[in-house]
Design goal:
Elements: H1 3-13, H2 17-26, H3 33-38, H4 42-51, H5 61-69, H6 73-86, H7 96-112, H8 117-123, H9 128-137, H10 142-157, H11 163-172, H12 176-193
Helix pairs in contact: 1-6, 5-9, 7-12, 9-10, 11-12
Amino acid sequence: MDPFLTLLHSFSSSLSESELSDLKFLCQDKIGKRKLESVRSGRELFSLLLEQRAIAGDSVGFLQTMLRAIKREDLMVRLEQFVEGGELNATDQPDVNEKRLQKAAIEVICENVGRDWKMLMRSLGFPEVKMDRIVAAYPFNLHEQLIQSLREWQKWKGKDAKVADLIKALRGCSMNLVADRVEQKLLQMNTETK
């Protein structure tokens, strides 16, 4: 069974009628009025959103926005836990050391890359469509757009996601200072573990 569908099913059963009504209101630009009027449960609403490709296991930005709007922090936490590690196969993940290095590199990148984040993501070969979805989900939060893009890149590449690719992409975008800072951080981490 698809773990994302299981998660949506559990979300559905914990929604009150007023929360469902609020969610339906938030979906007006994604789902037609007639279809929305016929929705009687969270499960039906999530099914329509899946059909419209507004949400998916690898694209949860709109779902996060909706949960934030209805102030369901508990569901937000469960969704974030799912995104962090629930849906990736263990065989498709980088090894533990590479994940640790990527996490450190991403922290440095997020602290030092600003408006040019899209240039970096293009250099990594990240699809424009995915960037547009992330921008739509976090319209006024540049930092979150970058973090979510890098997380999506990690999921997209799976075990082929390498810190070396991040550094190469930074240098390719003439973000040499950031690349140097990432390398310094990694060097510092390697010295601490020895």
